[in-house]
Design goal:
Elements (H helix, E strand, L loop, with lengths): L6 E5 L4 H12 L3 E6 L8 E2 L2 E2 L1 E4 L5 H15 L4 E4 L14 H29 L2 E7 L10 H20 L5 E7 L7 H5 L2 H8 L10 H12 L10 E4 L7 H5 L5
Parallel strand pairs: 1-2, 1-6, 2-5, 6-7, 7-8, 8-9
Antiparallel strand pairs: 3-4
Helix pairs in contact: 1-7, 2-3, 3-4
Length: 252
């Protein structure tokens, strides 16, 4: 398999998109470590192999340093870091204090930078790669999640700067995700009818599955992407149909 003998760390890898990424790396032959504040509901496994779980609050710089020291002791190397941990509640800017928005930025931008810096020595030694998990929220207005959108925009720019500073030893890329169907999708989109209606707004007609995001992450970590660095790969099903087309009164 294409990642045999490789070691990957997936932050926030215990559920949702992160779990899909972890399963994809396991299926590709990698040893996988997932970290989050809470353990997975069930062991993450694929192909008869399971991911190791380490409890970590990524906003605790000392705990993050300890995480990669343990990875170095246990596996002797690190080939890929996937900065997946993040998220936000729906929170209009004017409805809460700046400090609450700042915490969203801390989780979605500052924490990935902290994690990447802690992993850098191991990644450089292995000539490895970093995969940032971005969002289309960072490329367009993000009403109700403005701090999250701003953080994801910053994350994409951070990845491009890292790709220049850390070359040629470490490649750094971003997956820019659209909507993904996870166990929490109903909180954002409602019941099955709501999910189908939202999926219908996507050119491909549906939401992405976590394992599809995982396949894209495996590609960026593999030798097939050996000359890809500083790139942003759109995984959004074709994006969004421009709203003005529905309002235009022109015969088609």
């Amino acid at each position: 398999m294409e990642l045999d003998g490789r070691v990957a760390v997936v932050t926030g890898g215990t559920r949702g998109v992160g779990a899909g990424i972890a399963r994809a790396f396991l299926a590709a032959g990698a040893e996988v470590v997932v970290c989050a504040r809470r353990p997975p509901d069930a062991p993450l496994a694929s192909g008869g192999r399971a991911a190791a779980y380490v409890p970590v609050d990524l906003r605790d710089a000392a705990a993050v340093t300890d995480l990669f020291a343990e990875v170095g002791r246990r596996y002797g190397r690190l080939d890929t870091l996937v900065n997946n941990a993040g998220g936000t509640p729906y929170r209009p800017l004017g409805e809460c204090a700046a400090e609450r928005h700042a915490r969203v930025v801390e989780l979605n931008l500052v924490a990935p930078m902290t994690v990447s810096l802690a992993a850098y020595g191991l990644l450089r030694a292995a000539r490895g790669s970093v995969v940032m998990i971005g969002s289309v929220s960072g490329t367009r207005p993000s009403p109700g999640t403005a701090a999250y959108g701003a953080a994801k925009a910053g994350l994409e720019n951070l990845a491009r700067s890292m790709a220049v500073e850390w070359a040629p030893e470490v490649r750094v890329n971003t997956l820019v995700l659209g909507m993904v169907r996870t166990e929490l999708s109903h909180l954002h989109y409602g019941d099955e009818n709501g999910l189908a209606a939202v999926g219908g707004t996507v050119p491909l007609g549906r939401l992405a599955e976590p394992d599809e995001v995982g396949a894209a992450a495996v590609f960026l970590a593999s030798e097939r992407a050996g000359y890809v660095s500083g790139a942003s790969l759109l995984v959004h099903g074709g994006g969004e149909r421009p709203a003005f087309l529905a309002a235009a009164r022109v015969e088609r």
